[in-house]
Fold these 2 entries.
Entry 1:
Amino acid sequence: MSGFASLLSQFKETTAAAAASSSSSAGGGTGSKRSRSSFEQSSSSSQPHHQLRQKQSKIPSPSEHNYCYPSSTPIKTIYIACPANTETGGPEALHQLCHMINSGEYYFDDDTTDKKGDDDDVHDEFGRLITDKRSSSSSKQQVHKGKRQLKAFMLYLRERSSSSGNKTLVEQVFGDNRSSPRPSKYDKYNAPMMEHHFPPHHPPESTSNNGGEYSSDLVIWPEVWTHLIDSLQQPSEPAWNTTKYQSAIWWLSVNNNKGRFAPHQFINRQDILHLVQSSYARDHVLTKLTAHSGSDANKNSEQQQHVLTMTEFIPYTSSEFAFSSTPTTTSKPTNSCKGNGSKENLVVYNPAKGMHWTDEIIRRACGKQAKTERDGSVSTGGGIRFCPIGKGPGGRERLSGEEVVELLKTAKVYIDFGPHPGMDRLPREACLAGCVVITNREGAANFDSDVPLPSEFKFAQFDVDKICSLIKECCSKHDEYAEKLDKYKSWILAQRVQMKACVDGMVNEVVTKRIGCVKKD
């Protein structure tokens, strides 16, 4: 998460047309399908929405225009693009980011804010209401001692194909009296929903930089939606000669981007700030950014300014976000893998990835004496069971966050030989639940800063005999092996504090370095 801006250009005509024609306006568990799951697919539930057309005007090709970093334009409002009605680890991280920005109570000097009496409403330079003195709503920006609060909002969107199938439509989703685009599990976060159409109105005299004009709005996109970065921009001719909102990509993973952000975009889209959730993502982004810079140290240093670390955390590690009730095993079990609350000779795995390797481990460990249960768990003659983290046959149904924790607390070992597209949540949750974590070295798992396990629990080469031998040792001497993960556990428990430091760094980059910003007294 570092510096950025311009973003693109296609939105004012669509917004005006839609506003004129419409008067209405928006885990814990892992998927258990054996195919690799990409982060968040938008729900098909019907919600009031605002439909935005993507790429209505011609966007210049990379050879026509290079975008520049809008370092002179300070950020005043942050919008976090998030799939509507979706509960997975990615959306939860997005809500955490919104919460951490708002909870930080960052205030800055703002000469454009109108100066009215204490009893009057206060508006920003665009005529938008900042705060209603008669309301304590968290969805309004606050003014404190002549300073304005940096505020973050959730921008709930839904991706759709047009009826002809040749265009991508982006729907801004709003709530009503009966439903909301935000799952109730995220109500615990200070993450208010954007209640008006994006983009907000900006005056023509916005700050100009390198031939482009950048607004003080920043939109943070998850890495799975990099192809939508331009979808909210108002079109104009030429496409770059208009006010642009600033943009950032949060690389919560690398693999799930699926190459949507092409190599030439890393080079030509110098306006974009890259926030990286893992060292794996940082390595990926910096490699792409510096691909054509050669040995120019100054240019490499300049590229690194576009990359900022932004982590997330396991919510129940903080009392602020703990489960409403502590997970127990006293309720009626929904999966035969669940035990009586004590550790069993149980090995659990994510059935959504790496099943080719997992199946081989199970076959070798269980041999001819293996017994497959209806829920997909497999028992060995030696008393060790392998169980998918999921409900139903083969663990194909998602467990709730509480159910995942409950299952992990009964297991002794968690294995993960699939791809690690980012700093995955399940290995961390397994460690917190007292499991010995065993992985490969693929993706983020190859970076000890992302998965800081002792080397004996990480396999660069798949050796099924050694892996099975280690699993048996971890089951028979569980306490001894689990103690070796104490440093990993401490690192996980510190991630909420680390995220606060990351947000401080981002605010320093996009606000403090551009205008005066202070913490509220």
Entry 2:
Amino acid sequence: MTYDPASANPLAANPLETRSDMQHALLDLFDPLLPYFSEGNARVRLDAAAAHFDRAAADLEGFARPLWGLAPFTAGGGEFSHWRRYAEGIANGTDPNHPEFWGKVGSRDQRMVELAALAFALALVPEKLWDPLNGRARDNLVTYLLHARKFDYADNNWKFFRILVDIALDRLGIEYDRSLTQAYLSQLDGFYIADGWYRDGDVRRVDHYIPFAMHFYGLIYSRLVEDGYAKSYRERALAFAQDFRHWFAEDGATVPFGRSLTYRFACAGFWSALAFADLEALPWGEIKSLCLRHLRWWADKPITDRDGVLSVGYGYPNLLMSENYNSAGSPYWAFKAFLPLAVGQDHPFWTSTETPPSPPSDTVAFPHPGMVTMPCKGDVVALSSGQENRQMRFGSEKYAKFAYSTRYGFSVESDERAFSGGAFDSMLAFSDDGIHYRVREANDEARLAGHALFSRWSPWPDVMVETWLLPISPWHVRVHRITTPRPLETAEGGFAIARRDFEADTLSSEAGSAYVIGEEDFSGIRDLSSTVARQGVAQKAPPNTNLITAKTLVPQLRATIPAGETILRCAVLALRDTAAASGDWNIAPSAPDISDLRAVAEQGVTVSAMQAPRRMP
């Protein structure tokens, strides 16, 4: 029998339409973990791959992260038969004399992340995790939590983790230093930009951590605590919902962008948290649809191993795209999507008829992350001015490409010494030796004028590139003005589409254009009167580089540019339409003149992600 990876996905046969469906989905996803609990139930080890932190912390991650879903499931009346394991695991994991002790917490320790899930569960269902403990076990747990609070938490969404621990301590009647809570609440406010948007810390980037971390924890806080911060978190979520809905396509997919995408349907966590907080930021039928459609999008993806355990990866198992802090238990942050199970069957989230938001028909500009989203016949494409993440692997691919797509995702490169074989989808790559290459990593400047994006960046200190991105749905146009003291080889890619086996795809490459046609999709890139001649290339990208599909084709334009100034212009199109070569492909937009684009650079507003973060004490 041929193995179908998608059939191992526990969501595969679930319609994911009702509260009962979501309850079954949670349990079906959790059950494959049971064989991997340790003898003392304090650790869950799923494979031998490593993260940058110690093995005990990785095992705690596998133990704790399912609690993001199990706690609300039980709080909402669900029957979970393995709480005894968790109570025993907590007792043993916090006992310094037990062989399964989780280890002492230090400054900016991974254990801080996982204690947030434990604290949330303690606050929500203490009768399952606190009441069964004897006096010594309770003392060990409290000592462990209080010890963790003494250390510095990372300068980003981690600050919410100590606040969640403090909420649990409050609910358990434990005394602690509340001044630390107030300090972190104040510092988290320093990450707020405006209009519902945050940064994830003292950084120049805005990604999915805003919905599935900053807003997620803020909305939990707003339900469990009543104060001025709770009020602010609710007001900010109301504003953010109006923007974030544009990141989702009709089929439920969201724009993959940034780090930690192995958390997969945690991207629905914002909509789930609105239900938990009883905050109707959009009509309940739309919130429900955005949440459940996203879960349904994942149901036919091969996102688990053969035993049903969630894998590291996005659309399929893929360690290449992971971060160095991803252990085998990391994907279970996805259980954040199950937060609506805490509210009863009579809540309007469940009683409302699922009402898909009207298909996006307008191009929408987002000045804070520096993006413009546009609908493309079922797909949503986000043009990006480019953000910065030089600290993590593939930061350029995850933050600085020109475009990201709900259907085509994006690719990471597999070999920094293979310029001729790179995917370079939605990127402009340069090489001065034909082997190594440079792409956009960060911007010196980024601006937005109407729906046009501008950025100025330097692949080398002596090479300057000005880039304009213009949405003309279903196309987008790119213009680059390059100033270089030496000749450079260049490669610019369109979108990556799924490649068929047996070389059955259509590949077309000629002077000035290239397109590829797979089983369902068309992707093309066309030169628009650049000042140098460019040759089209139908690139067979290295396997396992794209986030959504393992084998892809990418149309490219390649040329050697001379020393001095060069203008490159192109139009890019990708559609779920194998007949596009005889339709949309022949209706390319015209090439804008560089003089007409200067106003974008001169008059546009500076993208918030480029501005220095506002510091708080």
